[in-house]
Amino acid sequence: MPATDLSLLIDAALEAGNIATRYSGPQAQRWDKPEGAGPVTEADLAVNAMLERELQAARPDYGWLSEETEDSPDRLTRNRVFVIDPIDGTRSFAEGSRTWAHSLAVTEQGEVTAAVIYLPMRDLLYAAAKEQGATLNGRPIYVSGRVQLSEAEILAAKPNLDPRHWLSEAVPEFRRVYRPSLAYRMALVAQGRFDGMLTLRPSWEWDIAAGDLILREAGGRCTDRLGHPLRFNNAHPRLNGVVAAGSEVHENLRSRLDPRGIGISA
């Protein structure tokens, strides 16, 4: 069912963009979630409400996992689950930036089978279905063919360069660049605009599920920081970081990471 799920996700993402863009950055009401969980705006909640209503009506037998919905163990009993971030990059949205995204995915028994990342302010719609390739605005995309890590541009936040993350505290040489939305970073690597991305802190499933499939369908490798394939719909929906790139750059990054560096914020 990946193909029909993808059509459903595309339609839902476009409608999410219509809703979110009615709000104007800093004018959208914003508040902080409890326990330092980050900001949320009225746009996040409006988009989430529409997605939950429409997607669950279309697929009532699918489970539901979203950043803006209280989690329920019911999803653990479902073979297929929606994994949703209504707005990835809420801080950027609230500041009036154009680099926030809607991130929508369907998983089946832990594997992503359909995915969309949509940036309405940039008119960029990345999409993929299992074994059908990845596209940007309907055209096929592929990861970079870069081989040498020293020549690579890697999307990463600055704390990822903490020497404690790396074997013998030797940070590999590459050019670090940054974009605020984690989903957008993954999409940019799938597009070949950048050679790889990494985030070494524990990562919420809704931030990375869509990007995982889009990257892999674009010919890249996407794993946790230890090189394990990403699996979704876990009881605690957080994964051990993300390393994503073409095969050569991915191996060069992953093999230099210190597996004992788990827990250092990055």
From TrEMBL:
Give the required cofactors: Mg(2+)
One GO term (biological process):
signal transduction
Which residues make up the binding site for Mg(2+)? 67, 85, 87-88, 207
Q: Name one Pfam family in it.
A: Inositol_P
List the PANTHER family.
INOSITOL MONOPHOSPHATASE, INOSITOL-1-MONOPHOSPHATASE-RELATED
Q: Which family does it belong to?
A: Belongs to the inositol monophosphatase superfamily.
Name listed for the protein in its UniProt record: Myo-inositol-1(Or 4)-monophosphatase
According to its UniProt entry, this protein's organism is Ruegeria conchae
Q: Taxonomic lineage per UniProt?
A: Bacteria, Pseudomonadati, Pseudomonadota, Alphaproteobacteria, Rhodobacterales
